Amino acid sequence: xxxxxxxxxxxxxxxxxxxxxxxxxxxxxxxxxxxxxxxxxxxxxxxxxxxxxxxxxxxxxxxxxxxxxxxxxxxxxxxxxxxxxxxxxxxxxxxxxxxxxxxxxxxxxxxxxxxxxxxxxxxxxxxxxxxxxxxxxxxxxxxxxxxxxxxxxxxxxxxxxxxxxxxxxxxxxxxxxxxxxxxxxxxxxxxxxxxxxxxxxxxxxxxxxxxxxxxxxxxxxxxxxxxxxxxxxxxxxxxxxxxxxxxxxxxxxxxxxxxxxxxxxxxxxxxxxxxxxxxxxxxxxxxx
Length: 288
Description:
2 domains, DNA-binding transcription factor activity, alpha+beta, Jelly Rolls, elongated, Arc Repressor Mutant, subunit A, six-stranded antiparallel sheet, about 25% strand
């Protein structure tokens, strides 16, 4: 159960970006909506309490001052907390430029959540929208201006939040790289790294690629091979020992990965490096 107030807009004069509906709800414990697929965009902003947002198999906890985006044609579900059920506002909108407007305020398919310091103002905007029952031309323009005001308020508060988020994201990447460089010789998985930095696996995977340009698996493989190159050049360890030291349980898998990256087998690489080293020393001796 929920106590809610809803406005639905019957006509759409602004095809590029327009409000479809909006509402305010005080939810009962465990009140939920979905699983469902929506044909349009919806933004919810939590005014008090907390609840849970499910996208696919992922679960996210949200509280006061946080908002979430529902994308068209994506299966989602959201539910109020049992002990501290949330109260929220929402707007539904659509139009050919909707995604562009979302990107402008830092929200989109890769960032479904945001933090707002303007929840009271956002609530007032929705309450103003709810006052319009019978819409004439003037009212439709007023509604449109309120839609832009809603987005403006999110943009105002999300700019500072974006700076904080960027700093946090950099910390996550730094910690992930530190973990890889410390445990590269073990049988580590992406889930191990995600657990270490306390992040959802899929989110960390997306974030890592965005910040570094490569996947976590690619970075790990490249780091292991970099260490292998050092060991081949500087030690007399066998290929099997180097493979094990770099996290490869199967020397054959290591050799194939090495050749794919360097163009030659580990053995050939070592021979070439040592031959070049000898030639360099001979040239130096000749100059004395």
